[in-house]
Amino acid sequence: MDIDNFRKLYLAEFEELLSAEAQVAGTLRDLAARATTRPLATAMDTHAGETESHRARLEQLFRAHDTGGERHSDGSMRAILDETRKWTGMVGRDGLGDAALIASLQRIEHYEMAVLGTLASWARRLGHEQDASAFAEILEQHKAADARLSRLAEDVVNPQAAA
């Protein structure tokens, strides 16, 4: 797809978000199995379910745009997930590993939050209010997941890793 107008740019970024969500959904449960702290494993399983829900909702919204053709694949998320797998493979499966896992999960969250915020703004500019509302709602859920990870790191995981 040649991107020569704002609508096409919006749809290409939307496709990349769908690709990122699919990649994350396919990885979260595998990463959760590496967690040694029960609250972290539970939080990751919960977020995996949320990600599947987000993905289904976003797919439904995207289909309404009737773009057809080949979809974009998000190379940035692929690189973040490759780095996550490398990182978690280098660190043991203990408190230290859980600290590394949370750091990686927060990289993923922050990338998704950046894309969602951009898309919400662009959707409003294009008059796609239903899309904008969905992006904003999903963005808030990602912010909440990030805050839960921060609390878990500060209260449980980091003190164990530093011991």
From TrEMBL:
It comes from Halovulum marinum. It holds the Pfam family DUF892. This is DUF892 family protein. InterPro entries: DUF892_YciF-like (IPR010287), Ferritin-like (IPR012347), Ferritin-like_SF (IPR009078), YciF (IPR047114).
